[in-house]
Amino acid sequence: MNKTEQHLFEALTEINQWEWLSLPSVRSLVGRHVYFCLANEIMKNVEVRAGQPLKQVLFHPEFTDRAIRMKLREFEKDGLIERLPDDIDKRYRRLVPTQALVDAIHKHAKTLRQTIEKSVYCVDKH
């Protein structure tokens, strides 16, 4: 393992510890999966598109739909998301992030960058 790989692995270990302490929702594998799927959608769209099946956004071959739904309820109870009916078709739900989730994602990204930059030189490619 070269020095860069070693530093990256150390940063990964540190960010994993930060996630455990700062993001209780991601302490389980299902929670981690749901969090990163939602974060990815939120960064692209601000909310999961109305009418888009949640199964498509949150699909994972190892997790049941029930496990994912239960985790979504937990996120809702924790004030991270709101599940609202679609304005046009009431059968669908929109997952709307609360400011708490948006803030958590921004803090997560900032912490990740700071953790990596402590020991690895980073250059934005975009």
How many helices? The count is 5
> Topology as H/E string?
HHHHEEH
Query: DSSP strand (E) fraction?
Result: 5-15%
Percent of residues in helices: 55-70%
Q: What gap, in angstroms, lies between the N and C termini?
A: 28 Å
Structural class: mainly alpha
* Overall mean confidence score, pLDDT: 85
The strand order across the widest sheet is 1-2
Which outline best applies? elongated
- Poorly predicted ranges (pLDDT <50, ≥5 residues)? none
Largest sheet: 2 strands, antiparallel
Looking at the chains present, what oligomeric state does this protein adopt?
single chain
Rg, Å, rounded: 17 Å
Give the tally of β-strands.
2
What tags apply to this protein structure?
126 residues; elongated; mainly alpha
How is this structure best described in words?
With 126 residues, the protein is mainly alpha-helical. It is built from five helices and two strands. Helix 1 (3-22) runs antiparallel to helix 5. The longest helix is centred in the N-terminal third of the chain and has 20 residues, at 3-22. The radius of gyration is 17 Å and the shape is elongated. The two termini are 28 Å apart.
Topology of helices and strands:
Elements: H1 3-22, H2 29-45, H3 54-58, H4 65-77, E1 81-85, E2 93-97, H5 99-117
Antiparallel strand pairs: 1-2
Helix pairs in contact: 1-5
Short description:
The chain is mainly alpha-helical. It has helices spanning 3-22, 29-45, 54-58, 65-77, 99-117; strands at 81-85, 93-97.
